[in-house]
Design a protein that fits this description.
225 residues; Rossmann fold; DNA polymerase, domain 1; 2 domains; six-stranded parallel β-sheet; two-stranded antiparallel sheet; 40% helix; EC 3.1.3.18; HAD_sf
Length: 225
C-alpha cells in the first residue's frame, strides 16, 4: 500500500468527473442572467463553459448572452450567492463513483480532489453527497496561488494528502486536468464519461470509459515500486 515514495493516491477532478454538477450550474447561470433580463443558455452551452473556475464560467455566460455593463466581479459574487444553496439540488455522483471510491479506499489507496471550484463549495458538495470523509485532501481553486492547468495546484493537493507525484495519478475530464498532470510529472486517466471532448484524452496516460474502470487502471499505473 505504501511504497518508498509514499501512499498511493488517486486525485479526482470534481465537476464532470466525480460529480454531474451541470444541472445546478446551468440553473444558476440561468437565474443570474434572468436577473439582468438576459436569456439562459442551454445546458449544452454551459457544459462547454465548465472547467476553468467560477470566474471564467460567469464570464463566458455573460459573453454568450451578450451582456453589457455588468461588473464581472459582482456577477461572480451573485452567482455564488445563487449557487451555494442550490449546488446539490440536482447534482449527483456519476454512476459507479461511490462504489469505486469505497473500493479504492478498501484497497489502501488514498483519495483527493483537485478542482478549480472554490474549496468551500467543493467540500459542501462532497459532504452533502456523503463522500467527503473518503478524501484525504480537497484542493480548491482558491486553496493555492495557482490553479489547474498550473501543475502547482495538483502538486499542492498531493502534498496535502501526504503523498508524492511518483505515487499519484490524476483523473479528469478536462484538458486542464491532463495538462496539470503532465506538468507535475503525474500519470493521468481521462474520464470518458465527463464533459470534456474526446480530443482532451490525447495527452492522458490512460482513458476510462466508465468509473468502474479506474481501479484496474490505477493498479497498472501505480504498480508497487
Amino acid at each position: 500500500m505504501v511504497g518508498r515514495h509514499g501512499m498511493r493516491l488517486v486525485v479526482f477532478d470534481l465537476d464532470g468527473t466525480l460529480v454531474d454538477s451541470l444541472p445546478d450550474l446551468s440553473d444558476c447561470v440561468g437565474l443570474l442572467l434572468a436577473e439582468h433580463g438576459l436569456p439562459a443558455p442551454s445546458q449544452d452551452a454551459v457544459r462547454t463553459m465548465i472547467g476553468d473556475g467560477v470566474g471564467r464560467l460567469v464570464e463566458r455566460a455573460l459573453d454568450h448572452a451578450g451582456a453589457k455593463n455588468i461588473d464581472p466581479q459582482s456577477a461572480v459574487h451573485r452567482f455564488m450567492e445563487l449557487y451555494g444553496p442550490r449546488s446539490t439540488d440536482r447534482s449527483r455522483l456519476f454512476p459507479g463513483a461511490e462504489e469505486t471510491l469505497h473500493r479504492l479506499a478498501s484497497e489502501g489507496v488514498a483519495l483527493a480532489v483537485c478542482t478549480n471550484k472554490p474549496v468551500l463549495a467543493a467540500t459542501d458538495i462532497l459532504r452533502t453527497l456523503g463522500v467527503l470523509n473518503l478524501f484525504a485532501a480537497v484542493g480548491g481553486g482558491d486553496s493555492f496561488p495557482a490553479r489547474k492547468p498550473d501543475p502547482a495546484h495538483l502538486l499542492g493537493t498531493i502534498a496535502l494528502a501526504n503523498s508524492t507525484p511518483a505515487r499519484s495519478i490524476m483523473v479528469g475530464d478536462h484538458a486542464n486536468d491532463i495538462l496539470a498532470a503532465q506538468g507535475a510529472g503525474v500519470d493521468s486517466i481521462f474520464a470518458g464519461w465527463g464533459y470534456g471532448i474526446p480530443a482532451y484524452a490525447a495527452g492522458a496516460s490512460a482513458e476510462a470509459e466508465k468509473f468502474s474502470d479506474i481501479p484496474a487502471l490505477a493498479d497498472t499505473l501505480l504498480a508497487t515500486d
